[in-house]
Amino acid sequence: MTNAEHPLPAQQHKNAARKADGFATPKQDKKPQCAKFLPKKVLPIIFLPGIMGSNLRMSEQRQNELHRKDNIAWRPDVLGPSNITGAATESPAERQLRLDPLQTTVDIYDPSGPSDVSGDGRHGNIKLDKTFDSPLLTDDSPTAKNRRTAVQKARARGWGEVFFKSYGELLQHLESRLNNTFSDGKLRHEWRDVIGVDPNTWLADPTLPQQALSEDELRKVVTGCWFAVYAFGYNWLQSNGDSARLIAVRINRVIDEFKQSGYECNQVIVVTHSMGGIVGRALVHPDYGNLRDKVLGIVHGVMPAIGAPAAYKRMRAGFEDPGIMSAPEESLAAKVAGNHGDEVTAVLANARGGLELLPSESYGNGWLRVTHNGRDLETWPKQGNPYSEIYKIKGKWYSLFREDWINPSGLEAGHGGGTFKRTCNYLDKTRIFHQKIVNTFHPNSYAHYGADSARRSFGEVIWEIDKNCANLAGWQGWPILSDTKQGRVELVRYDPDDNNIGALPFNEETPTSIFATILPPSAPGDQTVSAKSADHQLRSGVFKGIFRQTGYEHQSSYKDPRAIASTLYSIVRIAQSAAWTC
Length: 582
Known about the structure:
Blueprint: E1 6-8, E2 33-35, E3 41-42, E4 45-48, E5 56-58, H1 60-66, E6 72-74, H2 84-88, H3 92-98, E7 104-106, H4 150-156, H5 164-178, E8 182-183, E9 186-187, H6 215-222, E10 225-226, E11 229-231, H7 240-260, E12 268-273, H8 275-283, E13 295-301, H9 310-317, H10 328-338, H11 341-348, H12 352-355, E14 368-372, E15 375-380, H13 386-391, H14 420-437, E16 445-450, E17 452-457, E18 461-465, E19 480-483, E20 488-492, E21 513-518, E22 523-525, H15 531-534, H16 536-539, E23 545-549, H17 561-575
């Protein structure tokens, strides 16, 4: 008899039954069938992606209005050379209608529906690596009833709801490594980048010293415990508080389903990326998710803890291309999100989720500047209120919102049409949300983020007026003649003693144009979130461990080995605090 064997997949059965499903083989096949059995303890890992990281579908009504063949509103995994041109050149009006928070929902997997609408065809973005090895996500045996493949099981866990080309590597790392730690009693080689490694290798902040994780500590955590990895998308156009409420319902459902099946499952660990961290904080706030007792801990990745000036820049000048150092699909996603300010404003001025990424009061004063010849002409905010001092300022060339960019589709106000007044109402709600969560962090939190001086981010936004402009009288009220929509405006001087701005009573017959330009980012960070914003986590005094890292771009952070290693380390440290009865 040969020593080879037929490995059978571990199966989840009701009442935590420990049984295996075998399959028939030819008589001459003498290999034994070897089964692995699931532990009775379950500690699910819930991953929450960042803005634009969740796939969205539009309502049937909006699909018909746009004459679309499908109901896809946002699915960056399908971007490629064959369809990028049409998506990237879409008008602001089309973007506003396609990405309307009132007409979109998360594109959730439902195999009972049509394959190309909610089933396996729509969620074909999942491509498991050949090296992926999880005892819990494997193909069912050929003769199993209602047989499912490993990919279908991953879809049922929500993996197809998110930008898989960006997050798939992380999901597979977590699923494979947390459930594949020891083999024949020996630590698997995949864990050598975490176990026994000095956390300073991953740039742990010295003010929160970390100890190396031992093999015995890992063994104690994982023995008899199943770490089922889920990915939960959310509608990033809606308020993060609303998203937290919906995520809380899904987490409760996961816990209840495991309990009803006879497993011990009391809490989950949440892992976040960017905006997902804001959702995670709202998830444990009593006014939103109210799930603190059911969340054992949170690992935050590249979170804009108190907002990002890049949000202002993007609504005036479009998304910046992450560059040649990043994955091609992330450059494509940036183009489709909006290369120009009017394209981004048409979406985010009407979306509370996007507005909640603007710098909050806690970001401080003076992050928006107008300069000339190296001298500040003015800075805002001055009184710590960016909502009234910056965001709601109307009609200035340096205003956050150009009113004619807010509702390019011409939708009526009662049917989702945006107005400056509605956006200001959203900003009032944004301020309340910011104030509620500013000091909300789970007491068992860890974080990693970019603090890289080579990955410049917008720690502030600076408008620079041309050096050759000698007469600055009335600069605050100069009208815009033209706008590149990518951070450069052409202005003209008018008579400051005449209030009839609309008539433009120029001092000269042929007025001389003046240009103002948004300067490139200059602060350390990850090319999107400045270290100043992320460091709010460090200043909070709540976190158990923080890793201030270098070497990665914001969207690609979870492809970085140090980010992945520090995440695994943080998960194990959080899991050490779990209390079990069995």
